[in-house]
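Bump. Still looking for tRNA(Met) cytidine acetate ligase structure tokens.
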Amino acid sequence: MKAVGIVVEYNPFHNGHLYHAASAKAQTESDLVIAVMSGNFLQRGEPALVDKWTRTEMALENGVDLVFELPYERATSNASSFASGAIQLLDAAGCSSYCFGSENGSIVPFTTTLSRIASVQTQYDELIRKYIQEGISYPKALNRAYSALIRSTANEQETVDLSLPNNILGFHYMEAAANIGSSMKPATLPRLGAGYHDDVKHGTPIASATGIRKEFFETESTEPIQQFVPNSVYNSLNNWIIERTSFGSWDVFYPLLRFQILRSGPEHLAAIADVTEGIENLLYKAARQAETFQQFMAIVKSKRYTWTRIQRMLTHIYTGFTYSHRASMPAPDHLRLLGMTRAGQSYLKEMKENMKLPVVSRLANFNSASADFSSSVSDLYAFGINPIHPSLGLDYRIPPIRKD
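Sorry for the wait, here they are.
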């Protein structure tokens, strides 16, 4: 069986994701779709709207055949590390190809861009370091170095615009695949309709996940987003809010985050992953003053630290993820199976002897620093959603979800 891999967060699953899964399968002429999906905390450093089990069901009901979890240490990392972890898992799962959405929509400019950067790699890396030392964030430093060395001397149609979020991730996917010598063939699809950060536009079926979340939190109702998601997803979201009382967001999690910061104090915050350059003192000061998450971010945000970078720090503070933890998890060491369709189950049977990493369906039977930490994070997520009645131990109690 031939599988195409995709990297997803599904926060939440929407009609654009439905198109992505179906089109990736068709374009690569694959028999099934394998998704590597972030767990309960996401790449932009925020809690997922609903947990990974609910999002797995959404995926399996809408065109995905196997869902593996991208472990916490990669799911909440920068674009390069996020992409590297995801590509290693898709490669280990035996995918013949991988497919990502991009603003560019064509794979050739990505290939050209990789080749051009490789030809000036040393100069490129030095320029990035120079810009970072000047106080520029890493994403902006990368794009400025790229513009100076590559885009300024090339036809814009030949290379990729790395100021756009999906193009950036796509570039890192291809970079990661090249670094491990993967035989997977890359493919890309043009992003449909709304841009990454666009608000929803009613009367159209496509909206970004960011726009959908914003619409929900502003209206406190799922009804305005119904047109943008499959019916099964709409029903899942309604069931979630009835059973759990709230969706995941930093506004909801902030009281527990604030407690964690105040209890730890600046000296302990300095050991948390991504907390650098004395910012622990500012974080502590902000927690003492701010009664809401928005007030907290208004105090901490600066030109040097992007909103996303700060949120990643806060995610690690909330979960207790330290530099020591990160050092103990240098590379993915398992394929954590969250769910499968009948086709997915057949693929696992066929590929059982050829998987490059062990497939883990029950955590009780597997010992790993990465798996153990991702499991503890699931409990912390449950506390954030509903601290009075949290759903604890789900990673050990729920077997992989099966859909016919």
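The longest helix spans residues 250-269.

Edit: fixed formatting.
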